[in-house]
Amino acid sequence: MNLSDLRGTNYIIFETVAGSHSYNTQTKDSDIDIRGVFRLPPEAYLGLTDPPQQVSDKTNDVTFYSLKRMFELLLTANPNMIELLYPPEDCVKYCSPVMEELIANRSLFITKKAFHSHSGYAWAQISRAKGQNKWVNNPQPEEPPSKLDFCWFIHANRYPIKFIQGCRGEVDKMIADNIFPFRPEPVKTALYSHGCTIADLLPRCHVASLEHVENTYRLYHYGGDAKGVFRGPHEQLAVESIPKDDEWDKIIGLLIYNEAAYNKARNDWKHYWTWRKERNEARYRSQEAGEIDYDAKNMQHCLRLLWSGKNILEHGEPLVRFEGEQLQTLRDVRNGKFTHDYLMKQVEAEMVILEKMKDASKIPNSVNHKKIDKLYQRLAQM
Question: Is the pTM of this model over 0.90?
Answer without folding.
Answer: no
